[in-house]
Specification:
The protein has 17 helices and 2 strands. Strands 1-2 form a two-stranded antiparallel ribbon. A hairpin with a 7-residue loop joins β1 and β2. α11 runs antiparallel to α15, α11 runs parallel beside α16 and α13 runs antiparallel to α15. The termini are far apart. The mean pLDDT is about 85. It comes from Arion vulgaris. InterPro entries: MFS_trans_sf, MOT2/MFSD5.
Length: about 450
């Protein structure tokens, strides 16, 4: 048994035990109306994520099968991030004015259309698909959460329950990612690389139908124009340091995370072996790795992180424990630099990072629900993604060596830690002010 499969089995046991411990420590929600609401949201959200996960594993392979060069593939990926950065921000304003439910339906339509373009081996048609997909991704990471938070508040549920929804979302998303990877591989092996995109299109259509039948509409500021929504969100960022901190933390952490996604495969593919004829010396050797086992281990680590979030939230504030999470994340991404070629240590470091990601997602969702204004929520969340996409585009275009990329990742996370400390200070000041008023 290789270390990757062994790690997956061990993590699965830890995940199950931690999940059971979490359920025992945290009482179940007794509000039947909230349980129905939570289930209604999670069904749609997980279908939306499944539509995304089904496409991911075979995008590069599909482009290669059409005879695209490495440079052409790089341009297509950059176009996707670029459209998410530019067009996606405008789509966020659209959600606040015309409705988050409508925007989520638009996600399904745009991503479904992107799937259709995968049937053509023409570079420019594939480019259109990347532009549509990049725009859809911005909706995925803003409109769904905006709908959830607004609807949660509108129905008068306890604000402390919101973190539970985000945590279950991370847990379910990890399971969906593993299942989607297996389904995508089965269809690709049987029908070719384009088949997973057809399955994704069917899932997205199902999601749209469920939204239409089960979700009500909610808005930000319906009276403001798209330009006004954007300028209002910028004004909030300038005037509210808490929102500014959140934006910086999200951009820096996710920038490091996307760089990690691009670099984990080559980092784990290099091992040190004794150099022939030179006692005590080692040389690098490239080796094949079981991507499926590693990906599954990463997803289980995410699930562990979501359970840890629940436990931490019971005893301390998100603003406080996220400082430790960001510090640990920074250290974990230093392992490919400090222990280059040591496959086991690097793998362990990456598992720790994925656990931090599992804590990060529900933590950020909780803090955004607390600090981001309802009127421009989707617009603000998409503005948060501008620096993230810019970071990824620059790194893709610069062709930096792996050590340099991981050094930047660690730097981004340490800067995020500084912003989190700033946010914690503001949170403490706000808490003391509230106590004095009482």
């Amino acid at each position: 048994m290789d270390i990757f499969l062994g790690g997956f089995y061990l993590l699965t046991v830890v995940c199950v035990l931690l999940y059971l411990a979490t359920r025992a420590a945290i009482p179940a929600v007794g509000d039947a109306a909230f349980s129905v609401f939570q289930r209604t949201y999670l069904v749609v959200y997980l279908l939306a994520m499944a539509g995304d996960w089904l496409q991911g594993p075979h995008v590069y392979a599909l482009y290669e099968s059409y005879g695209m060069t490495t440079d052409q593939i790089d341009v297509l990926f950059v176009a996707g991030f670029g459209s998410s950065m530019v067009v996606g921000t405008l789509v966020g304003s659209f959600a606040d004015r015309y409705g988050r439910r409508t925007n989520c339906v638009l996600y399904g339509v745009l991503y479904g259309a992107a799937c259709i373009t995968k049937h053509f081996g023409n570079f420019w048609i594939l480019m259109i698909g990347r532009l549509l997909g990049g725009t859809a991704t911005s909706i995925l990471y803003s409109a769904f959460e905006s709908w959830l938070v607004c609807e949660h508040n509108k129905r008068g549920f306890d604000s402390s329950l919101l973190g539970n929804v985000f945590s279950l979302g991370v847990l379910g998303n990890s399971v969906v990612a593993i299942l989607a990877g297996l389904v995508a591989q089965k269809f690709a092996d049987t029908f070719g690389f384009v088949a997973p995109f057809d399955v994704s299109m069917a899932v997205l259509l199902t999601m749209v139908l469920v939204i239409v039948m089960t979700w009500t509409e909610n808005h930000g500021d319906k009276s403001s124009s798209l330009t006004h929504s954007f300028s209002s969100a910028i004004k909030v960022l300038r005037e509210d340091n808490k929102v500014m901190c959140l934006g910086l933390i999200q951009s820096l952490f996710e920038g490091a995370m996307y760089c990690f996604v691009l670099e984990w495969t080559p980092s784990l593919s290099i091992i040190n072996k004794p150099k022939v004829g030179v006692p005590g010396a080692v040389e690098e050797e490239h080796t094949d790795i079981p991507h499926g086992h590693i990906f599954a281990a990463f997803m289980v680590s995410l699930m562990i992180g979501s359970s840890i979030f629940k436990l931490l939230s019971k005893y301390t504030s998100v603003e406080s424990f996220m400082r430790i999470v960001l510090f640990v994340a920074a250290l974990s991404l230093m392992t490919p630099i400090v222990y280059k070629g040591n496959q086991l240590v690097i793998f362990m470091g990456f598992l720790v990072f994925e656990t931090c990601v599992g804590i990060f997602w529900p933590s950020m969702g909780t803090m955004r629900g607390k600090y981001v204004a309802e009127e421009t929520r989707a617009t603000t969340m998409n503005i948060f993604r501008i620096p993230l996409n810019l970071i990824v585009v620059v790194i893709l275009l610069q062709h930096l060596d792996r050590d340099t990329i991981f050094k930047f990742c660690a730097l981004f996370l340490m800067l995020a830690l500084a912003c989190q400390q700033w946010l914690y200070t503001l949170y403490e000041q706000l808490s003391h002010s509230c106590l004095q008023v009482v």
